Amino acid sequence: MAKAVFRSRALWVGFAVGLLGTIALPLAVAFTIDLVNGPNLDGGMRHTKAAADILGIEEALALYAKDHGDVPSSEEGIAALVPEQLFKVPIDPWGQPYIYVREGKNAWAMSYGSDGKPGGQGSAADITPESIRSERSSKDRERWLSISDTAATALFLSSALLLPIIAYRTAKRPPWAVGVLAGAASLIATLALSLGCDTVLHGGMRAWWLFGIGLLFAGGAVGVLLRIRFLDGIVITEIGLLAAGLWMLSGMIVR
Length: 255
Fold this sequence. Notes:
2 domains
């Protein structure tokens, strides 16, 4: 029976749809949210990416100072954080290196924005840790960004997984549903495990949680494809979906 399923064209077509759909849907949702809200809220996805990088560098600098007793010198710059605190020297979304600033015992990273020059307004405005925190001081804005981000991720997970799960449960496990579910779960497992591995060394409990979610989706994909009796892929994937939902909810509460 398993061999017949693997020979099914519908299964592999479904697998491809699951992979591609899982990639395309969140990108489309994120683009739509950015298109509608970006100009009014945070300057768009590039600004958001730069802000995340700058805050990540700030955390890496704190770890460096804890290990070495001081932050890197102006000559050493951000490169001194590689490979202990960062895997590589990040580049801002406009293709420019982040500016390293040190004043006394304090240091931070910043970006000159889209024009690559000091000052400016809008997307060309300088992005610093102080400006990022100033933007986040608006509770209404932060709440809307949290809801938008969580809603986009929830939509992506539910669309990619819930419909195949329903079809798999109610339609006697059609090959296309097996393929879509396995494809989506495989990609989500890969992303979750990659992000989990990337942050687990310097992250907290949520990083380990994300790593566990990746393992659940990987187990679910294997269980669905191989139809292992003691490894119910559907149940494991549903548990992974629940864990992912709780993980997103915890992130929204922490914000």
